[in-house]
C-alpha cells in the first residue's frame, strides 16, 4: 500500500492499475493470455517516469517497460513480482521542424499517428510496418525495428537523431540531438536503440524526417524462380536510381493463404507462379517516375525475370496490394503458429528454405509452412503452423530446425523483432561469446541490480557491484 500510495502521488489515482484490473488486459498481439504484474503505472512525462523508477529502485522492485505490445518474442512480459511501466499516456507529438526535418515525440506515440502528423506538413517518416496503428515509437527504437522500407531508408537506428532515457535508478539521460552530423564522442543513443528496455526506459525521441514523396509506384509480379527474384532485385534497384523503397517476396503458399477465403483479398495474379514480389518505388516526379517504373518492369519481363505483373493505378489499388502482404493474421486460422523473424544472405536463402521444408517434414510430421519477407534486406519471416494440442511439444523441435542452420551460413535469429525471452537461448547463434560478455558488462554498468526487464535478452542477470 505504501508503494501504491507513493506511485499515485506521482502519476495520479487513475495512473496506477492493480493486479486484478491488469488481468482483464491482453498480453499482446496474437496472444490469448492476460497481463500479469504487481501493478501497472502510467506516467505522463519523463519526470514522472524518473520518479517512478526511483521509487521502485529504492525498494528493489523490478520494472518492465511496455509500449504497444505488438512484439512477438515475449520481450515485454512481466510477472507477479514486477511493476509494468506503460507509456500509453505519453503520446505527445512536440515540435515538427519542416526546415531541419525533425520531429520530437514522446515514446508512446504510435507510428501511424506520427506518419499522419508529418504528412500534414508535406513530410514523411519513412519507417513503416504492418502494426503501424499500435506499435509505439519507443518500442520501435527499443527493438531497432525496420519494417518494409529498410532497403532504402535503413532500420530505426538510422532515423533516430536523439533520445531521452531514464536509467534504472531514475537518472535522466537527455541526449536530444537535432543535428544530422554531431561527431562529439560516444553517440550514447546507440546504447539504448535495440537494447529491448534492459538498459533504460526511452521516454522521448528526436526523429529524422524526409520530404514527402510525390510518387509511389507499386506492382505485384510473379517470378518463375528464386534466381529470377534475385536478378529482379538487382535490376530494379539499378534501373530506379535509388528510388526502390520496398521489395517484398511471398512464397506461393503464403500468397494462396492471403488471397483465398476466409481472407478478404482477391488474387491479382494467378496461382501458378513460383514466387510473388511486391515492389514499391518512391520519387519526386509522378509522371517521370511512373514511366521509369513501367519501363524497368518491361525490361525485366523481356529478360524473363517476371512472368506476369499488375501495376497499381490508384491509391486504393496500392493499399490493396500492400494489404495482401500485411494480412499476416491469416496464419491464426486452423492451428497454432510458431512465428520466426530471421535474416540470412540472399545467396543462401533458397537452399535454406528448401532444407527447412525437408527437415520439418521429417522432424515434426504434419504442419503448414509459410514463408515471406523483406527480401531486399535479407529478412525472412518463417511461420510454422501445427495443431494446437501439439504446440508445446513441437515448438522446441521447430526452433532447433529453424535456428541451428543459421550458425553455419552467417544468419541472424532476429532481423528486427528482438530477442526477449523467446530467443534468449539462441542468442549465441548470432553473437559471439565475447560480444555477449561485453553486452553483459554494459548492462551491469547501467543497471547493476538487474532491475530493468529482468531476464530478457541475455538471461543471466548482472551481479551487483
Gyration radius (Cα, Å) is: 23 Å
The biggest sheet, with number of strands, parallel, antiparallel or mixed sense and barrel status, is: 7 strands, antiparallel
Structural class: alpha+beta
**End-to-end span in angstroms?**
30 Å
CATH architecture assignment name of the largest domain? 2-Layer Sandwich
> Percentage of helical residues?
25-40%
Write down the CATH class of the largest domain: Alpha Beta
CATH names the topology of the largest domain as Uridine Diphospho-n-acetylenolpyruvylglucosamine Reductase, domain 3
Name the beta content range. Answer: 15-25%
How many individual helices? 16
Number of domains: 4
Residue stretches low in confidence (pLDDT < 50, at least 5 long) are none
Mean of the pLDDT scores? 94
Could you tell me the number of beta strands? Answer: 18
Strand order of the largest sheet: 15-12-14-13-17-18-16
Kindly describe this structure.
- This protein is of the alpha+beta class.
- It has four domains: 2-86, Uridine Diphospho-n-acetylenolpyruvylglucosamine Reductase, domain 2 (2-Layer Sandwich), CATH 3.30.43.10; 93-211, Uridine Diphospho-n-acetylenolpyruvylglucosamine Reductase, domain 3, CATH 3.30.465.10; 215-328, 2-Layer Sandwich (Alpha-Beta Plaits), CATH 3.30.70.2190; 334-419, Alpha-Beta Plaits (2-Layer Sandwich).
- Helix content is 34%, strand content 21%.
- It contains 16 helices and 18 strands.
- The protein has helices spanning 2-11, 19-22, 46-59, 111-119, 137-143, 150-153, 189-192, 226-239, 252-259, 286-302, 315-326, 346-363, 391-403, 406-409, 427-430, 433-446; strands spanning 16-18, 39-41, 63-66, 83-86, 93-97, 102-106, 123-124, 160-166, 172-175, 201-208, 210-211, 215-223, 244-250, 275-283, 308-311, 336-343, 368-374, 379-386.
- It has a seven-stranded antiparallel beta sheet, with helices on both faces.
- A hairpin with a 4-residue loop joins strand 5 (93-97) and strand 6.
- Helix 1 packs antiparallel against helix 3 and helix 8 packs antiparallel against helix 10 (286-302).
- The longest helix has 18 residues, at 346-363.
- 45% of the residues are buried.
- The mean pLDDT is 94.
Amino acid at each position: 500500500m505504501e508503494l501504491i500510495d507513493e506511485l499515485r502521488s506521482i502519476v495520479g489515482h487513475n495512473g496506477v492499475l492493480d493486479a486484478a484490473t491488469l488481468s482483464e488486459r491482453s498480453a499482446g498481439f496474437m496472444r490469448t493470455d492476460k497481463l500479469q504484474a504487481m501493478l501497472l503505472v502510467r506516467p505522463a512525462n519523463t519526470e514522472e517516469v524518473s520518479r517512478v523508477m526511483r521509487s521502485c529502485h529504492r525498494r528493489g522492485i523490478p520494472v518492465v517497460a511496455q509500449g504497444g505490445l505488438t512484439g512477438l518474442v515475449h520481450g515485454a512480459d512481466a510477472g507477479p513480482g514486477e511493476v509494468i511501466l506503460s507509456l500509453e499516456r505519453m503520446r505527445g507529438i512536440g515540435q515538427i521542424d519542416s526546415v531541419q526535418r525533425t520531429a520530437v515525440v514522446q515514446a508512446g506515440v504510435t507510428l501511424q499517428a506520427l506518419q499522419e502528423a508529418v504528412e500534414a506538413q508535406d513530410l514523411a517518416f519513412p519507417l513503416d510496418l504492418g502494426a503501424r496503428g499500435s506499435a509505439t515509437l519507443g518500442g520501435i527504437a527499443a527493438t531497432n525495428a525496420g519494417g518494409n522500407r529498410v532497403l532504402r531508408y535503413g532500420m530505426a537506428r538510422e532515423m533516430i537523431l536523439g533520445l531521452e532515457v531514464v536509467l534504472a535508478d531514475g537518472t535522466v539521460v537527455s541526449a536530444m540531438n537535432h543535428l544530422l552530423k554531431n561527431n562529439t564522442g560516444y553517440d550514447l543513443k546507440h546504447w539504448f536503440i535495440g537494447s529491448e528496455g534492459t538498459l533504460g526506459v526511452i521516454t522521448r525521441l528526436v526523429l529524422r524526417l524526409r520530404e514527402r514523396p510525390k510518387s509511389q509506384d507499386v506492382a505485384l509480379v510473379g517470378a518463375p524462380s528464386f534466381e529470377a527474384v534475385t536478378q529482379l532485385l538487382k535490376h530494379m534497384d539499378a534501373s530506379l536510381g535509388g528510388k526502390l523503397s520496398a521489395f517484398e517476396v511471398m512464397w506461393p503458399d503464403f500468397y494462396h493463404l492471403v488471397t483465398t477465403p476466409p481472407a478478404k483479398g482477391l488474387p491479382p495474379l494467378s496461382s501458378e507462379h513460383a514466387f510473388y514480389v511486391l515492389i514499391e518505388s518512391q520519387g519526386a516526379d509522378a509522371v517521370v517516375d511512373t514511366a521509369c517504373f513501367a519501363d524497368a518492369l518491361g525490361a525485366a519481363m523481356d529478360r524473363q525475370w517476371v512472368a506476369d505483373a499488375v501495376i497499381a493505378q490508384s491509391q486504393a489499388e496500392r493499399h490493396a496490394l500492400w494489404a495482401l502482404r500485411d494480412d499476416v493474421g491469416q496464419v491464426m486460422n486452423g492451428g497454432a503458429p510458431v512465428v520466426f523473424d530471421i535474416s540470412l544472405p540472399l545467396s543462401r536463402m533458397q537452399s535454406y528454405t528448401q532444407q527447412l521444408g525437408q527437415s520439418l517434414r521429417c522432424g515434426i510430421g504434419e504442419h503448414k509452412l509459410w514463408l515471406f519477407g523483406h527480401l531486399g534486406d535479407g529478412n525472412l519471416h518463417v511461420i510454422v503452423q501445427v495443431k494446437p494440442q501439439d504446440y508445446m511439444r513441437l515448438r522446441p523441435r521447430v526452433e532447433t530446425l529453424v535456428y541451428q542452420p543459421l550458425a553455419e551460413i552467417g544468419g541472424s535469429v532476429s532481423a528486427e523483432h528482438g530477442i526477449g525471452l523467446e530467443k534468449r537461448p539462441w542468442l549465441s547463434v548470432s553473437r559471439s561469446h565475447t560480444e555477449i560478455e561485453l553486452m553483459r558488462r554494459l548492462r551491469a554498468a547501467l543497471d547493476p541490480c538487474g532491475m530493468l526487464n529482468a531476464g530478457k535478452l541475455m538471461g543471466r542477470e548482472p551481479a551487483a557491484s
